[in-house]
Amino acid sequence: MKKITCITPTLWLSKEFETSCAILYRCDTVAEVIIIDNNSSNRNIDFTKFGKPIESAVTVFNKTYKTIRFGKFLIIDAEKNLFVSEPWNMGAKLASYPLLCILNDDVIIDSKTFKYISKNIDDSIGIVGLDYTNYNYTGFNPVFSEIVFRPYAFGCCMFILKNKYVQIPDDIKVFFNDDFLL
User: Fold this and answer.
1) Which residues lie below 8 Å from residue 168, measured CB to CB, with a gap of 6+?
2) 8-state DSSP, 80
3) For the segment 10-27, what is each residue's pLDDT rounded down to a tens digit?
């Protein structure tokens, strides 16, 4: 079973994010959660329940960012809204584990789904993404099949092996950035 690094950019506006963080904290398959803080003035979750805060800094793509680690959670202070492409690239670059989960802050995925994908994804599978028609807030049943078109909400939760991640151009801020990973 592969360990997972979750990557989540956030503006701290989603009411589901705290529930998602609690699930990620309890899930043994998720070994690391990289949160790119796109608006620290809105930070509204008490992460001290997940670990003692350790302040540091990290340099990625020739820029240094302040960080705070709370156990498996690493919060990177982006100082401004970087949207999603740049934070996904940062998270993929910094990830310590072989399987990446790019997860929106308003999506809740259960531990069984993380374990199932971690156990079943391999080099023959490019990317596993959310199919909104198959999703509810208790998780989804992933189906591995060739992608002919990107289903609705695909980019809200994607699993990809780190060695298959392709850097997305930073000028693509929000829409269709997941197309670069297909």
Assistant:
1) 85, 88, 89, 177, 180, 181
2) S
3) 999 999 999 999 999 999
